[in-house]
What does this fold into?
Amino acid sequence: MTVHGAPIHGAPIHGAPIHGAPIHGAPIHGAHWGTFRPRVEDGRLVAAVPFEHDRDPSPLLGSLPGAVHAAGRVTRPAARAPWLRGTGGRRGADPFVEVSWDTALDLVAGALAGTRERHGPEAIFGGSYGWASAGRLHHARTQLHHFLACLGGFSGQVSNYSYGAADRILPHVVGDASAVTGQVATWDDIAAETDTFLLLGGAPAKNVQMESGGTGDHLARDGLARVLAAGTRVVNVNPVRGDAPDHPGVQWVPIRPGSDTALLLALMRCLDADGAVDEGFVARATVGDARLRAYLRGHADGVDKTAAWAEAITGVPAETITDLARRLRSGRTLITATWALQRAEHGEQPYWGVIALAAYLGQIGLRGGGFGFGYGCVGRTGGTYRPFGTPAFHPRPNPCPVRVPVARLADMLLQPGEPYDFDGAVHRYPDVRLVYWAGGNPFHHHQDLNRLARAWQRPETVVVHEPWWTPTARMADVVLPATTTLERDDIAATSGDPWLVAMKGTVDPPGEARNDRTILAALAERLGVADAYTGGRDDAAALRAMYEEARRSAAGRGHPLPAFDAFWAHGHHRYDLPAPPPPLAAFRRSPADAPLGTPSGRIELFSATVDGFGYDDCPGHPTWLEPTEWAGTATARTPIHLLSPQPGTRLHSQLDMAGVSAASKIAGREPCVVSRRDAQERGVADGDVLRVWNARGETHVGAVVSDGVVPGVALLATGAWWTPLDPGADDSPELHGNPNVLTRDVPASRLSQATAAQSVLVAIERVAAPVPYRDPHAPPAFADPPPADPPPADPPPWP
Ligand SMILES: Nc1nc2c(c(=O)[nH]1)N[C@H]1C(S)=C(S)[C@@H](COP(=O)(O)OP(=O)(O)OC[C@H]3O[C@@H](n4cnc5c(=O)[nH]c(N)nc54)[C@H](O)[C@@H]3O)O[C@H]1N2
Ligand SMILES: Nc1nc2c(c(=O)[nH]1)N[C@H]1C(S)=C(S)[C@@H](COP(=O)(O)OP(=O)(O)OC[C@H]3O[C@@H](n4cnc5c(=O)[nH]c(N)nc54)[C@H](O)[C@@H]3O)O[C@H]1N2
Ligand SMILES: [Mo]
It folds into this structure.
């Protein structure tokens, strides 16, 4: 490929997969949902056959052929018609015009250069949050960050939607967030040692299909089965019964969403009342218990945190709570919580509560005891981490210091220059003029989408790279067609998983789609930073370099990897890793010799630092704080607590148009689980179309009536493509079942500024009349191209 007639460094960077490079051995590929053998006929994927070493392959493999060859692929660069003419219009409502690559690249380069010149790097928002692909070279967001850093910087993002509250509170309590991000007790250790495994939020089998960066072997379902076979008692504290195995060793404790902190405080108070707190451990390994104990006993606020007190809040009978406290102290106990608990208002509190309860039990650092998070959230949890050697592309550091918490996206666009609190400091939102998104879908992932849609009209330019016409692509000014992983070569890898998998490009890209890296290289060329961006490497050379770097790192730790050609020919590699020691074992042996990263070096049951921030929504010790929207504040207008769990039928919004997800829809809409009691009260039967709404929005779903969900709670999975009835109007009803038109765009707390997507009240009713509907996955309307492609704007030279 050439840009302005000149080849890039003489080395062509292909938009097509490296068919020229040797592809030995059987085709193989990886995705966040696992490894597979692509079966390809005439350049088209016809099947994704599970990898022979995977003991629990994901059913989502069945969705791949339909997704890769969907009618809604972006096949040519496109620009929003009024934006192209410079006449305003409205993002999301206007038709698009297909343009040539040269025109599209000139337009984007011109917009980047102009924005930077007029407003500085801060005005370019390149956070681009999202999962994108499992391939570690062509990870769109990472490549975008590298590209924008080469240009002199951009406003970025910090933290994540997944565990943003935990990520901020855990460092204050235990010194780092490794109980969420790193090694926790393995399935082997739990099966061998754990008597009681307390799961706040269960261990949903659907979630462990996924691992960011892929996996060669889904081990979690087998792990939990071995734990149950070993006789471990599993307690599923959850508004939902089905998110733990159906097994006699599993006890379901139904609970109101958002109330777990009260349960945890009561369990601690029971241990305290029974004289069953491990006072030796608390004295040796923690600080601040006097403050916490005074609160539990009611000395601080006059409220004794008894089991009866917690029953009124949680709906869990007091007797169940006292029984549970007795069980927890009667043997080896491991406590965990799903990440969902902290994607809520005051989501920091249940996590701090879990750690405090584990400290009272005194088993932190023992094999199969203590606490650890993420079982039932992603595939890796309970496996063995490898602290080295993961192939990864390392972007150039961003020279611009602005980093906005991911969940404050709409606030940033609506309140440029305004101050906000974040983890003890005050920051200001940048004045963003250009939004650049590659590899994420904010019109799936953000809360209160009607609010975001209004905020999103503010920037001057929105650029999106997408393989599909997603809701976010439809909200762009320029859409650049990206390849899927199957259309290029890459490597899947993650430090939480022992597998390296070659992702061999085997499918022809549709139309004019190009790799994100190719697109950004062409922009870099136009803006005078080609060398910095590509390092002089084409895709094949960059892939090889990424692998070789990982190989050197692994060799330095005594793990020889095969040479690149041998790895590529074989298609996969499994590291052989020794069993890890229990987390915090060294700290337990000697807190003085192996201190934590907290100010005291110990577990902080009361944190003077957090207390010193003075946040009323995140005080200095685990505290029950009533959420704004939950069962306790339900009204006749909005009586139902809506949870938006991760979908079992897809990855977020990915694969929504095909296979498993498509087959799950009810009358074309996302299924919504309603309790039998709530269904009866509303005359709702399976298969009915329902209207779900609150003051923020309205969405239409298909009813699934269930006995496995607590009355007063409904479940609507994330990821159904946002389809407003009238994209030209504010707050138009959404036709396809996207929960984020209902969720609140408020932070978990000022400490974390994390999402609070699970703290939501709604109304539900059956819709009798025919309801309008539109195909959520069809491409947008296209207008005729202007008479001739506008002459390429001459981008100002990059400073
Ligand atoms: N209500 C509610 N909302 C939530 C949550 C919740 O619990 N409740 N959970 C939140 C969580 S934890 C998360 S992680 C987020 C997930 O939010 P996202 O990560 O934004 O969701 P995805 O659908 O995975 O978006 C990835 C996008 O990348 C695109 N893509 C894939 N491969 C490529 C590629 O190679 N190149 C380019 N350019 N694009 C590519 C896909 O088509 C897709 O549009 O959602 C959050 N939103
Ligand atoms: N198939 C599939 N798997 C995925 C994903 C996907 O999109 N599809 N997404 C991945 C991503 S990005 C992430 S972050 C993880 C997220 O993983 P999680 O956060 O664990 O996922 P959820 O499905 O939202 O919720 C897990 C469980 O928590 C329970 N729960 C919710 N609120 C409460 C509460 O207040 N109290 C109690 N006790 N329980 C509660 C729910 O009922 C559910 O059983 O999943 C990952 N796995
Ligand atoms: Mo996530």
